Write the structure tokens for this entry.
Amino acid sequence: MKFNIKPSDAKYIIDEKNRVVVCRIENTRHLFQNFVNKNFKIGPNCDEMLWVSTVRPTLSDKLIMPNRFVGVAKCSQDDEWSEETGKLIAFSRAKDKLNKSFFKRANTYINCLDKWTNEAAATLRNIGNKLTINTQHRHNLIKSIIGDDE
């Protein structure tokens, strides 16, 4: 998944004395929600059902991403200090955390859709079975009334 987040979009804290660069990718909470809403429209109540649902609040809690991801790069005393290299390493680590969070939520979302689909299929099978039994019962009842002995 490409979020179009570039190293220049992140915020950095540089501690040259301790040879540490911290990268913060902020305001990420909307990324997964936007992805689902754009790519998986399953009906007019999709947003309600997934994000603000009172019916399935635990799902909406599981799908909301953290709003900040942090990556840290520490330069060894044996290595040459480079702020730019530190920024790239810290950004890569923060972006990896963002991607893991995204795919965790995507997996949860797909598993829930799969579960809901299976539940719906089972319900439809049960209804179909009842309709078949009812149809057979009506057919037998009519046969008994009219005396059809085929």
Observations:
- The CA atoms of residues 70 and 89 lie 11 Å apart.
